[in-house]
Specification:
heterodimer, A: 524 residues, alpha+beta, 2 domains, 8% strand, B: 109 residues, mainly alpha
Chain lengths: 524, 109
């Protein structure tokens, strides 16, 4: 019996190491770019010249002066419905009007002037988000990242079992036991949000696409398409309304919004969908987010009112709690992953949590590498392919991302295929770090170089931004562009920190051991 | 002759390994493929058991499918013997599949 227990523990440990080391780097990539995806709303504003103005006071914006002329234009197609995104949704200060097959119209709500949208030319935030879930590699990337998420859940549950079954001691003094301690401690604290986030990640990457047979069985052989079953519950289509084929005077957008606000004062209004506008059957569906019910709305569940375009009579209303419980459950689970509508503090808190998790992953890999290295005496230099690969993936990604930020404002915005150059430079640079880390014998020296280089790149990107955009920090502050200024400050701080760490880290093996085993306490 | 050979194979599978330091391909495949079958069919069965329309009930299995896969894979890979790893992947799969088949054809008959 004792023997069986021992073998069980051995196996549990072994499978954790085997799966862990295989998916660690991919998981790190997902977490690393996930941090930028959390900060996406801010980066999205920072990267675009068309968004360099203050967030307007949404109560005082004159919506009609921007929207009504577009709607009155007989050449603007209205047949497919028109979606209007109001300033403030996802921290975007612009007002956007879009319909199928037309270029999105973007307005500066402070001046009510139309601005030129960059569209495909500026995709920094989008690209960082795509890197988060393997999109650059299309289906292959989705599958790899999806299976990795399943592996991550496997590791979390196995890891918790390890902590429960094995009496770990945190008192070890060598580097190996320090790595083990931190890997264990951090994940013991952050696993609850982490597992929910990986769960939804796995669902988005492989869950939907693999659910065909399940949908077939559930629908008793009617369909293989899960969305045919789920769509009406989660994202019901707008009902088709017959056109009366007349022309009726419409309410102005300001009147529509005032009426909607009066019916649902607790909701932050994000968008309006117009159907059959300028016809007497016209309807306006005003949707938003109810911040008093976090976790229950924001993803598939959006409180809304539908008003008649002619006189503003209430046609339908959807409260947060009107959703079927499975839809509420769906929103609750996805809320932590998407963070729609949450305030800046929560966003930063989750970002810090993920940053800490990235470190915990790093400690896991370091633990594995240290165990490998301890098979050799101290005076033998260690050259392990996994060490070099991890170095390039985990540390090399920092200067590569720094380059993305530095290039955003140094590449001209009218450069043809601008985004292609942008992302290619990133990819090439990242691969170059792989070559460099295999070339250098001393991994710590390489790590220091990558950190310093990353530090410089992050450090100069706000400077390039100030210069190229023509907005000095003072002007950003005075004109109320706080979210743009805070991205600049954030980049500046990250750059400074990286430089500091890059110069501070030791690079001889004996000193490194001393570094990891010292007590991290403030000296007095 | 054949029978003894077959029994010998089963016997060999039911002997616990001496060490847990290697997992082995057999357990690995049982865990990945078997775990997937158990999780996928178990979750599909859940759709039938939840007392709401398929569109409403499929959301929970959709969400938890991958998590259950991870749990099932862990459960299978940690089995004390290779035989029990095999049984842990085959028996629930067959049970769930039979139940689903019964529920699938029940109302259409």
């Amino acid at each position: 019996m004792e023997e069986a227990k021992k073998i069980f523990k051995q196996r549990l440990q072994r499978i954790h190491v085997a799966v862990g080391i295989n998916i660690s780097l991919l998981l790190y990539v997902a977490v690393f770019f996930g941090i930028f995806a959390i900060l996406l709303p801010f980066v999205q504003v920072w990267e675009k010249p068309s968004r360099h103005y203050a967030m307007p006071n949404v109560e005082k914006v004159d919506y009609s002066s921007m929207i009504d002329p577009v709607l009155a234009d007989p050449d603007y197609p209205q047949i497919n419905g028109i979606t209007i995104s109001l300033p403030g949704s996802m921290h975007d200060p612009a007002l956007r009007i879009s319909t199928m097959f037309m270029k999105t119209k973007v307005f500066n709500p402070n001046t009510a002037q139309e601005v030129e949208n960059e569209d495909e030319q500026s995709q920094l935030a989008r690209f960082l988000n795509h890197m988060h879930y393997g999109r650059p590699f299309k289906l292959f990337g989705y599958l790899i990242f999806g299976f990795m998420a399943v592996g991550a859940m496997f590791l979390i549950i196995g890891g918790l079992m390890l902590i429960w079954k094995i009496n770990y001691k945190s008192s070890g003094k060598n580097a190996q036991s320090k790595f083990a301690k931190w890997h264990r401690k951090i994940f013991a604290w952050v696993f609850p949000p982490f597992i929910i986030i990986t769960l939804t990640g796995a669902l988005m990457n492989i869950g939907y696409s693999a659910s065909g047979p399940m949908a077939f069985l559930a629908s008793k052989g009617e369909t293989f398409e899960t969305w045919k079953l789920v769509g009406p519950v989660l994202y019901p289509n707008l009902a088709r309304i017959e056109k009366k084929n007349d022309i009726a005077p419409m309410l102005s957008m300001n009147e529509i919004l005032l009426k909607a606000k009066a019916i649902m004062p607790e909701v932050q209004i994000h968008d309006i969908t117009l159907s059959n506008w300028n016809d007497s059957s016209a309807e306006a569906k005003v949707e938003g987010y109810n911040p008093y019910m976090p976790f229950l709305n924001g993803i598939s569940n959006k409180p809304s009112v539908t008003l008649s375009g002619v006189d503003g009579t209430l046609i339908a209303q959807h409260h947060v709690m009107d959703k079927h419980w499975s839809g509420l459950f769906y929103d609750a689970i996805f809320f932590l992953h998407f963070l729609f509508g949450v305030d800046t503090f929560t966003r930063l808190f989750i970002a810090v949590l993920m940053l800490v998790s990235a470190f915990a992953l790093g400690f896991g890999v370091l633990l594995y590498l240290e165990k490998q290295a301890r098979q050799f005496p101290h005076n033998v230099p260690i050259y392990h392919w996994m060490g070099k690969l991890s170095l390039s993936v985990m540390v090399g990604v920092i200067p590569a991302t720094g380059l993305l930020f530095a290039l955003q404002w140094s590449l001209p915005f009218d450069l043809p295929e601008r985004f292609f150059w942008h992302k290619s430079a990133f990819a090439l640079f990242w691969i170059a770090t792989l070559t460099w880390s295999f070339y250098r014998l001393n991994s710590y020296q390489t790590a220091k170089e990558f950190l310093k280089l990353g530090g410089v790149l992050f450090f100069i990107s706000p400077l390039i931004h100030f210069y190229a955009s023509g907005f000095s920090p003072l002007r950003l502050w005075q004109e109320g562009m706080i979210s743009i200024l805070s991205v600049d400050i954030g980049l500046f701080v990250v750059g400074a920190l990286l430089l500091w760490v890059g110069f501070k880290l030791p690079q001889e093996r004996a000193k490194i051991q001393a570094f990891w085993t010292q007590k991290f306490q403030p000296k007095d | 002759m054949f029978k003894t050979k077959g029994m010998g194979f089963v016997k060999k599978l039911s002997e616990p390994e001496k060490s847990g330091k290697t997992i082995g391909l057999f357990r690995g495949i049982c865990a990945i493929i078997g775990g997937l079958c158990v999780a996928y069919l178990g979750m599909t069965l859940l759709i039938f058991l939840l007392p709401v329309t398929p569109g409403e009930s499929i959301i929970i299995p959709l969400l938890f499918n991958t998590l259950v896969w991870a749990v099932a894979a862990l459960w299978i890979v940690l089995a004390p013997t290779k035989l029990s790893a095999l049984l842990r992947s085959v028996v629930p799969t067959l049970c769930f599949a039979t139940l689903i088949a019964v529920l699938f054809f029940k109302e259409s008959v």
